[in-house]
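Q: What residues go here?
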C-alpha cells in the first residue's frame, strides 16, 4: 500500500504535493522525567493537553503546555520539552514526504499553539481506535527507538491495516494539520510568492542532494546569471543558495540517521558531502549539535 499523495494549494496557488504518514499516536500521563533539551526531529509532533502543565520552547519563545490547547512542532524545529510535575496529553507523530522538498511549514518553523475544540479529542480518540499499539512505550530507550527495524515496524503497520482505516487515518491527520493553517503567523508566512525560477531551482536541489551542485550550475539550470540568481534566491528564501543547499542536505541526513542503518560516512556520501569532516562541521553548524548528540536527543 503506497503512501497517499495529497495535493494542497496555498493562498497564492503555489502547488504543493506531499504524503503524510502516521508514525506514533497515544494518550500518556507524564511526570518530571519528561525533560529534554535541544530536540530537533524530522517528524511533525502534535500534542493535545488535557491536564497538568509543562512547557515547550523553541529558539525565540517559550510556551506553556496547558489544558485546552493544541500544539504543533513542525519538522526540523529545535525545541525544549519539560514537565514540572505532571502532564497528560494525546500525541501524534507524523512523517511528511514531498518530492519538491517544500514542507507545509517551511516558512513557519516555530511551535504553534492554538485553542483546542471538542472535536479535536474525538479526532485523537478515533486515531487511537484505528491504530492500536502505535505508542512509544515499548521504545523509551533512544538507542532502541532509533534502530531501523523499530521505525520500519511502525511504517509497516500503515500497510497492514484495512485500506478503509488507512484512508481514514490520513484524513484524520489532515484534519489535525489543517487546524494550524488558520494561524495568523502561518498565513502571513505564505503571503510571499516564490518566483517560478527559484522554485525550479529548489526542486532541482531536492532531487539532486547527493550530487555536486554549484551556484553556477543552478543559475544555468534556470537560465540566469549566477549573480542575479543568487540575489533573487536570497530575496525569496532569506538564504543564499549554498546555505540553503547545506541545510537541505543536513535535514536529509537527520532523516537518514533515524530511518536507516547507514553509517555517518555513508550518510555523508548520500547527502552530497565530499568528506566526513565537512559533513560533521556542517551538521554542527546547522543543528547546533554533533551528529551523536542529535541521535541521543531525539527519542520522540
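A:
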Amino acid at each position: 500500500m503506497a503512501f497517499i499523495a495529497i495535493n494542497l494549494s496555498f493562498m497564492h496557488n503555489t502547488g504543493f504535493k506531499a504524503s503524510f504518514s502516521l508514525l506514533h499516536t497515544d494518550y500518556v500521563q507524564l511526570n518530571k522525567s519528561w525533560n529534554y533539551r535541544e530536540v530537533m526531529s524530522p517528524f511533525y509532533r502534535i500534542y493535545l493537553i488535557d491536564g497538568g502543565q509543562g512547557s515547550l520552547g523553541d529558539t525565540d519563545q517559550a510556551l506553556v503546555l496547558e489544558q485546552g490547547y493544541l500544539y504543533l512542532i513542525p519538522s526540523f524545529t529545535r525545541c525544549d520539552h519539560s514537565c514540572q510535575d505532571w502532564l497528560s496529553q494525546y500525541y501524534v507523530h507524523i512523517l511528511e514526504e514531498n518530492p519538491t522538498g517544500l514542507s507545509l511549514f517551511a516558512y513557519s518553523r516555530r511551535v504553534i499553539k492554538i485553542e483546542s475544540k471538542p472535536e479535536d479529542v474525538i479526532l485523537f480518540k478515533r486515531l487511537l481506535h484505528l491504530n492500536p499499539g502505535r505508542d512509544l512505550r515499548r521504545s523509551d530507550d533512544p538507542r532502541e527507538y532509533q534502530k531501523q527495524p523499530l521505525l520500519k515496524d511502525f511504517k509497516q503497520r500503515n500497510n497492514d491495516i484495512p485500506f478503509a482505516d488507512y484512508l481514514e487515518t490520513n484524513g484524520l491527520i489532515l484534519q489535525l494539520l489543517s487546524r494550524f493553517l488558520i494561524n495568523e503567523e502561518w498565513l502571513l508566512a505564505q503571503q510571499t510568492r516564490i518566483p517560478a525560477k527559484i522554485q525550479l531551482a529548489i526542486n532541482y536541489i531536492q532531487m539532486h542532494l547527493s550530487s555536486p551542485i554549484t551556484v553556477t550550475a543552478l543559475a544555468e539550470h534556470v537560465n540566469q546569471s549566477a549573480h542575479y540568481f543568487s540575489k533573487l534566491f536570497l530575496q525569496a528564501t532569506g538564504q543564499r543558495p549554498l546555505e540553503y543547499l547545506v541545510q537541505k542536505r543536513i535535514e536529509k541526513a537527520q532523516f537518514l540517521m533515524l530511518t536507516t542503518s547507514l553509517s555517518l560516512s555513508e550518510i555523508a556520501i548520500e547527502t552530497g558531502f565530499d568528506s566526513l569532516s565537512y559533513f560533521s562541521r556542517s551538521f554542527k553548524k546547522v543543528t547546533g549539535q554533533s551528529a551523536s548528540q542529535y541521535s541521543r536527543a531525539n527519542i520522540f
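A: Context that may help when evaluating the design: The CA atoms of residues 56 and 63 lie 5 Å apart. The two ends are 25 Å apart (CA to CA).
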